[in-house]
Amino acid sequence: MNFKSDMKTREKISALLLSAGIILALLPLTGNRSFSGKPEKVLSEILNAETFFSVDQVARFIVTEDSTIQLIDVRSPEAYRKNTMPRSVNIPYNDFIGNDPDKYLNNTNIKSIFISDDDYYSSLAMAYSKGLGYNNCYVMKGGLKEWTSTVIESTFTGERISARENALFETRIRAARLFNEMNSLPDSLKLKFMESKKFSAKKLDGGCE
Amino acid sequence: MKVLKQYWIVLLIILATITAVFVKGFSRNSFRYDAVKRAEPSVNKANIITPGQTARLPGDILWIDLDGVKNFSTGPDEKVISIPADSILTKTYKKLIFKHKGSIVIKSADKAISAGVWMILAQMGIKNVYILN
Questions:
Q1: B25, CA 20 to 30 Å: which among A24, A159, B42, B99?
Q2: Is A180 in a helix, a strand, or coil?
Q3: Which strand (E) or helix (H) includes residue B7?
Q4: Do B42 and A119 make contact, defined as CB atoms within 8 angstroms?
């Protein structure tokens, strides 16, 4: 009797192990995450005009030191050193894709605005983030090129200026000043500053260093 | 039959898992596994192509204009279609894209649009899709 019940137990265990083996063989063996949700929905979020902030809006965020905004510059470190956006952190696109974005985007109270030379890498980073379920991601429309032509090289030509235009130009001038101050720092000071601005997941978590 | 009766739960679990994996792996209506792997061509810039490089692409090329202008300089036999970016995943166009055997080249005056569409198509498992520079 004991022998029979032992056989049954062994059969059951074998069946369970075999089924576990089949399941493991079929499941994708990767620790990397995958996009979630319906492709149509993600695409419409990516193409939505509200996913893009103008350079004037970003200038206002910078000038008012808006703490609900995080600027993420996805250019290379060399490009970032040459032209540093005030109040931005540099996470090169390669690193952003290669690491878990949760490190950078897990705080849902913060809007993350991606910046690149134009819209290409910033839009890729935004699309990637949205696909992984991070809805708090945006793009600075036009990138650094648009920033330079609209904010830095901003001039007013005309005889009269409305209050609204005046406010806009004031913001541009202040943002341009911050940008120029940042980028006129000597390299050693700039490096120190950039080191201090390096994204630290610990700081977000409020952990001890 | 006895075996089936005894282990029906186990067999059901295996069947359900196999079905789920196949649906996820081959469905045209969902994203594939491993987002990092699918995004890799954008990291090493292998997804960007110049007009001169298109001659080296394998197979037939499906040219997709995302702006509705058909602004491609291609030969007379090239297949150029105009699909607004927000309609690219409608049933008709999805079928066309998934059925196409060769390479797909997408173009838009707005880099944000071509980047976003590329990422979605790549994550859905379409490998030979390029952005025209």
A1: B42
A2: helix
A3: none
A4: no
Please report which helix (H) or strand (E) contains residue A150, including its range. none
How far is B78 from A91, CA to CA, in rounded Å?
40
Name B103's bridge partners: B61
Shortest Cα–Cα distance, A103 to chain B (Å): 15
The shortest C-alpha distance from B61 to chain A (Å) reads 23
State the smallest CA–CA distance between residue B123 and chain A in angstroms.
Answer: 7
The answer to whether the Cβ–Cβ distance between B86 and A44 falls below 8 Å is yes
Distances in whole angstroms, Cα of residue A43 to Cα of each of A126, B25, B73, B87, B118: 11, 20, 27, 10, 10
The answer to whether the CB of A122 falls within 8 A of the CB of A143 is yes
Structural element, H or E, at residue A114: strand A111-115
Question: What's the mean per-residue pLDDT of chain A?
Answer: 86
Least confident of A42-46, A72-76, A151-155, B105-109: A151-155
What count of CB pairs under 8 Å joins A to B? 118
Type of residue at A183: N
Q: Do A123 and B124 touch (CB under 8 A)?
A: no
Digit-coded pLDDT (tens) for B34-66 = 899 999 999 989 999 998 888 888 888 999 999
Closest CB to A127: pick one of B11, B40, B115. Answer: B115
Q: Residue type at B105?
A: V
Residues 6+ apart with CB under 8 A from B74: B61, B63, B80
Q: Which residue has the tokens 């004031």?
A: A170
Closest CA to B20 of A27, A24, A34, A41: A27
The model's confidence at residue B26, banded by pLDDT at 50, 70 and 90, is: low
Classify each residue of A91-106 as buried b or exposed e, where b means 16 or more C-beta atoms within 10 Å of its C-beta.
bbbeebbeeebeebbe
Query: What's the rounded mean pLDDT across residues B122-131?
Result: 93
Higher pLDDT, B133 or A46: A46
Residue range A27-37, pLDDT digits in tens: 666 667 889 88
Q: Tell me which H or E stretch contains A168.
A: helix A163-183
**3-state secondary structure (DSSP) of residue A128:** helix
